Amino acid sequence: MRIGIVCYPTFGGSGVLATELGKALAQKGHMVHFITYQQPVRLNGFIPN
């Protein structure tokens, strides 16, 4: 599935939840794109499927 997640790239709250959700979905084989103005702090880089 192709998934787009819109979030703020912050240290707490919705930014953390969105980043962790996206990482978990990517590990299950989904194609995840983050739509934000800056790389989320918990996302260290590109995670290939």
Describe the fold and architecture.
This protein has one helix and two strands; from the N terminus they run βαβ. It has a domain at 2-35. Helix 1 (14-27) links the parallel strand 1 (2-6) and strand 2 (31-35). The mean pLDDT is 86. The chain is α+β, with helices and mostly antiparallel strands. The radius of gyration is 10 Å and the shape is globular. Strands 1-2 form a two-stranded parallel ribbon.
Q: Which class do the helix and strand fractions yield? A: alpha+beta
Task: Tell the overall outline.
Answer: globular
Radius of gyration: 10 Å
Count of individual helical segments: 1
Q: Provide the spatial order of strands within the biggest beta sheet.
A: 1-2
Summary, kept brief:
Helix content is 29%, strand content 20%. The chain is of the alpha+beta class and 49 residues long. 8% of the residues are buried.
SSE layout and pairing:
Blueprint: E1 2-6, H1 14-27, E2 31-35
Parallel strand pairs: 1-2
Which features characterize this protein?
49 residues, alpha+beta, 2 strands, 20% strand
